[in-house]
Amino acid sequence: MREFEYYSPNNLDEALSFLGDKSEGVYLIAGGTDIMLELHNKFIQPEVIVNLKRLNELNYITEDDEYVRIGANTTFSTIEKNDIILRNARALAQASSKVGSTQIRNLGTIGGNIVTGSACGDSVSALVAMDAVLVIKSAVGKREVSLENFYKPNPEPRYDGCYINLAGIARDEILCEIYFKRAAPKEYSAFRKLGKRKALAKSIITVGIRMAFDDDNRVSNCRIALGAVGRHPYSVTSAEQIVEGKKMTDDVIEACVNEVSDVVYNNIRDRASCPFKKESVKELTREVINSILGYKSYKEVE
Ligand SMILES: Cc1cc2nc3c(=O)[nH]c(=O)nc-3n(C[C@H](O)[C@H](O)[C@H](O)COP(=O)(O)OP(=O)(O)OC[C@H]3O[C@@H](n4cnc5c(N)ncnc54)[C@H](O)[C@@H]3O)c2cc1C
After folding, report:
1. What is the CA(300)–ligand 1 centre distance, in A?
2. What number does the ligand 1 atom closest to the CA of 175 have?
3. Which of 59, 90, 183, 292 qualifies as a FRET site for 4, CA 20 to 30 Å off?
4. Are 223 and 285 part of one and the same domain?
5. Model pTM?
């Protein structure tokens, strides 16, 4: 491994001004669970590594009247148990609890999961279902971007065969916060992941869904997000339109599930995994919808 300089800023301002002065060859490290593998495999050859670990101002979960806000340095162990997340974004709590092992969840951060850009990052499909927005800062200012528009597909596979996306973040920027709307009354979400048994790393399919209901039990708003079935996680607008304005009868669920499967087929039809994934995604989507309906019934009698 080539020698590199190591810098551990005490706060965000220090980190941003360092990056502003020195952007080439600089890599950020948060939990290190992804980037250490990239270093080990010589996939990256940094000149400087900047450790974000001491930036405590990026480690929080808060809610105000409108939004839930998560600092980019927050670990999955914190997110999966957090009361604000459990109340407002059950899908994200469930996704966080499925990331790797306890050791990985204790180190791995939500910011790292997003910026690393894997098509199968567990938190990402849950966050797309929440319509999450990213707050990104540099020494010269701040910008916001919707998570769904954050990635650009990379045509080349990575050293491990994974299609890593080109995250829309510059070398002198830091992802600081992820925020999304608080759950409205009668709004629920859920997440499921299909992964290899006994394997820790890659998800085969992830599904995150958020649904809001009106007083007549019709779906007033829906977001269906998929991961690992395309170059990056995405939402399935055509399937959302099938359920919006309807009661979730068996026929509506079947129509929705079949549409999700058709979209997956169209996105990955050239892949060997397509026949398996287009069928499996149906079961997973059905499971997530049933989980939301079950949870809704439970909350109504609570
Ligand atoms: C054994 C194992 C199992 C795993 N299992 C899963 C799994 O089940 N599901 C899953 O989704 N992932 C899994 N992962 C991947 C990894 O743990 C997650 O992606 C994790 O969230 C990465 O976070 P981190 O803090 O460790 O990121 P790091 O490795 O520190 O950084 C990852 C990337 O993000 C950048 N970065 C980090 N923070 C910021 C920031 N605030 N602003 C800008 N750039 C930033 C870094 O520069 C780097 O490019 C696994 C990894 C391992 C080794």
Report:
1. 37
2. 42
3. 59
4. yes
5. 0.94
